[in-house]
Each structure stands twice: as C-alpha cells, then as structure tokens.
Design brief:
Blueprint (H helix, E strand, L loop, with lengths): L1 E4 L2 E4 L4 E7 L9 E6 L6 E6 L5 E3 L7 E6 L4 E6 L8 E9 L2 E4 L3 E6 L1
Amino acid sequence: QLQASGGGLVQAGGSLRLSCRASGINFRLFDMYWYRQTPGKERDLVAMITPDHSTNYADSVKGRFTISRDNVQRTLDLQMNGLEPEDTARYYCHVSAYGRDYWGQGTQVTVSS
C-alpha cells in the first residue's frame, strides 16, 4: 500500500513537500513515481526515481521539483518549490510491483495566484 501526505494550499512561488510511505512491498527494488491529475484530464507523470536514485522529471517541473527516496524508511518524497497555479492538481505516488499497479490515495495541491 501507498499512503501519501503533505498537500495543501499555497500561494504562487511557495513550496510544499509531499511524502508517500510504502508498505507491503520490497520498496528498495522498484522505480517509484509521482503523478498528478486535474479534473477531466489524464494522470500525468511528474517525476520518477530508480532504486539507485537516478531521476527524471517532466519538463514542466524541471528545476523546481525534486524527487527523493529513503529505501530504509520506505518513503518517497517530492519537494516542490516555485509553485505555480498550473501545478494545482491531485498528486499520486505510484509503483508497479509484482505484476500490479499500486497507487496512493492522492493528496491535493492547490496553488493560488
């Protein structure tokens, strides 16, 4: 299971840190992802991180967001700086493991202009 937290309301230019705690999987083996979704749109990839901490980001968040993980604590984080109203969405952590897709329940991020 994946349990996400850390969303909220912030003004443009502000920062938030999202966290996702994993249980029931051998966390250190798998690529981990953050996605986001706005109503009526598809879920978009924001960032991913491999078990050895290599990262990739969507162009829209490069230089502003940082994904990280702690393989001992089984946590996945997303540090979001320089937030823009366009970043408003529900954010989901994700892993594909043992032939299944696992999603967190999502956490809402709202950025006011």
